[in-house]
Sequence to fold (294 residues):
Amino acid sequence: METTKIVETVAFNILKQAVIYLPDDVKQALTKAYAEETSETGKTQLKAILDNIELAEKYQAPVCQDTGTIIFYVKAGVQAKDLDKIEGALTNATRKATKEVPLRPNAVNPFTGKNSGDNTGRYIPYMHWEIVQGDSLELTVMTKGGGSENVCQTGMLVPGEGIKGLKKFVIDAVIKAGAQPCPPTILGIAVGGGTDIAIKTAKKTLLKPLTEPNPDPEIAKLEKEIFEAANLTGIGPMGLGGKTTVLGVHVDYAFRHPASFPAAVAFNCWASRRATARINADGTTEYLTHKLKW
Ligand code: SF4
Fold:
């Protein structure tokens, strides 16, 4: 099979996997939250979420009606073939998935309000590119829900307030978001760079499994502190009260200008959807986050 056809097929498969099957780490975190939730209403909400996940898998239907905005992260080996054709293949895969999975058409022209009908349009699906060593191609897809996107925030904090200011910024964002991002959420937080770098870095951390804290112990400690503080807000599952407001927190950073302290918090809803596959130079494919289940 030619490379572009393989890329199209694999991109279609990971899109389908992502919208139907939540990653194991997210399911485990939700199961643990259900076991530990003390609020009756919160427990009922978590039970409904877990039942919903089971039904999506059983009937091979998207786990949420909002199948999100489609974002691809491409790690392209410098020696990989046909790199100029990848963009077209990912767009075709998006069109095919919209029709066949199906996905909700979520791409709207901001000026005319017209929906393209197939989840494509200017810059959509969005593609992040990273050039790496080797000849393989690693494709990751994130389908990002609108409710959780609507509460993402960037801010220019006061450098002198440092990490204390960052914690306040994040917890204020969680309180302001309330029920809107369909909690329990996952928080991707980043500081430094500039506003663009901070929000891109924050969102990219949402691809990390919940079982992987930051390898820097100081940052891992900060992730734990923010996790505990966010869960003290009492917002709870679907905003109806309880001790499970967030399932996990990821923090990353870039170096910053001495006069600036950019920060960003990207929310992901409980329907935290991502899937990754690697296409080797010989055309063989490894599905890295999901086993093919159809
Ligand atoms: S925020 Fe997430 S869970 Fe809520 S409706 Fe959107 S995609 Fe679904």
